[in-house]
Write a structure and sequence with these properties.
It is built from 15 helices and 14 strands. With 432 residues, it is an alpha/beta fold. A seven-stranded mixed sheet has the order 11-8-7-6-12-13-14. A five-stranded mixed sheet has the order 1-2-4-3-5. It has a two-stranded antiparallel ribbon with strand order 9-10. It binds nicotinamide-adenine-dinucleotide.
Amino acid sequence: MNNNKTFQDALVRLEDVLQHIRLVDDVRERLSHPKLSLTASIPVRMDDGSLRVFTGYRVQYDDTRGPTKGGIRYHPHVDLDEVTSLSFWMTIKCAVVGLPYGGAKGGVEVNAKELSRMELERLSRGYVRAVADILGPERDIPAPDMYTNATVMGWMCDEYAQIVRRQEPAVITGKPVHLCGSLGREAATGRGAVYALEEWARRRGLVPSETTVAVQGFGNAGYHFARLADRAGFRIVAIGDSQGAIHAAQGLNPDSVMEHKRNRSELRAFYCDASVCEEIPYDRLTHAELLELDVDVLVPAALENQIDAGNAARVRARQILEVANGPVTSEADRILRERGIPVLPDVLCNAGGVIVSYFEWVQNRNGYYWEEEEVNARLKTIMDREAAACFDLAEARSVSPRTAAYLRAMERISGAITARGTREYFNHGPQA
Ligand code: NAD
């Protein structure tokens, strides 16, 4: 644990926004604490016969607006502070885009790359056994996050079905399409972020073909963002992953770079036309250099706390679009604001994933599945509407896009808290 550093920083955003909106004290108090935090030991039999115990977490932050929703992360640095912060952001995010959910998050402290496939499956099933009592389609619905994917969600869904002795696909989203998953879910986070970027570009008069973009993180969110932004005409000039980054001023082709990465496990600037691939001129960059590139749009799509007080003054991008959760600290936010660099916030820009997870849950509960075009069109309707509303509010109130997004979320959450009435008075409180 790092003394709740990230969570305390997340709460700074709450305090910031409370300066712009009048809320009853109950709302502030309720939203400053997670509703339920669970820490569990997960014993896993390894392939060599030994036993290893992993630590897993599930935090349900707030369920006023509906069942809690949020992904499960596998990463060596996962701790309760990180999972709590992520569950807080999920609460805000679901409210920003008007989904009928509260927020949650889960995680396991593990380097998934070191486990065999069978060990990973045993760990994933063990995680579900540890938290099953607090999950459920009407209670808490997990999804993928860093280093978990549709395959892991499939195993988890199966384990849950074994425990409750019935099929319950709506308990988890981001499942494989063959196991009641939704078409369009895989690319939804990146696609939603491109819709947000397009809305912003229209307002700022940015011409996509002249707009250079650097992307940090080339996993589910970063890859699909880069691929779809490239398709929308933006110029992707740099891509980074955990090993480093590549930069080509003429522009990179994300599909070709991914094809090479899949085959060779390394980032190189290949351009493929049909079956013919050739390397184009490019430079190698460090993690730090990627974040400090002179580009129009910087897109952190990997981990939190990437731009902080230490490097915010060196950022040369004209705007930042957050695809990762929490990549810019509150202190960096302040520095960037003073330098006139707008930050388009995570709680809006990466909401495409949870929006299509919501569609998956709706389809599971109806037992009727939509065509991919319908999924994408409904995603676009929500992203266009909510991005436009946030950017309009930011302009009208002269606040940052992040503050505007939080204002819209707080209005919805506090409206729901107030609408639920004063139950506590009747259960434990003073007599009226
Ligand atoms: P992923 O596991 O698919 O990919 C993570 C990527 O980050 C990999 O390319 C990895 O190489 C890279 N990476 C790891 N450490 C790095 C470092 N130090 N520097 C640069 N790159 C690094 O994960 P993902 O699902 O794409 O999630 C990425 C971010 O997006 C996370 O913050 C996650 O919470 C957020 N997010 C994801 C979704 C989703 O649907 N997948 C939805 C909303 C938000």
